[in-house]
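WARN retry 2 of 3 for item q-0093 after timeout on previous attempt; input resubmitted unchanged.
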Amino acid sequence: MCSWSKGMQISRKGMQIRCNISYLEEWLKEKNLQGSCAIDTMEPLCQTAWLLQVNKSTDEDAKEICERCSGLSAVQVVKILNSYTPIDDFEKRVAPSFVRKVQSILQGNEGSAQLMLDSKYLFQVTFPFSPSPQALEVIQVPSSLKVGFLTRL
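OK item q-0093 returned
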C-alpha cells in the first residue's frame, strides 16, 4: 500500500486509501456520527494517504511532512517512507538522506501512541485446555467420519 498511486485522490485504480476514507466520512455524516471519535481515529490514516502523495525530496518537504503528520509517530513516518514503493518510471524511491532528515526533525516529537506492526509477524495463539467431564472410553465415534484406521488404546 506504500506507493503514490495508493494515496492518490484522483480517479485512478490506485486511489484506494483516500477514496475509502471519503466513503467512511460520508457514512459517518449520514449516521450523524461525525462528532464521534471515529473521525479522530481516521486522522492518522488520512495523514498516511497524504504522506504517500506529497513530494519527498527537499528540506521544505521534510518540514511539511513533520508538521502535517502529527497523528503519526516518528517510527510510523519513517517506516512509511522506507516502505514507499515506486510503481511508475516517473516516481523515485525516497532517498535515505531524506528519510534521515525527516527522522532528525521528528526526534523530539512524541506523535501517536499507535505502533506500526510488522505485517509478516505471526502471533502465537494459545487456547486454554479444559478437560471434558466425559470419559474417553464411553465416547462413540460415528462411522460417517471415516476414521476407521484409528485404534482405541
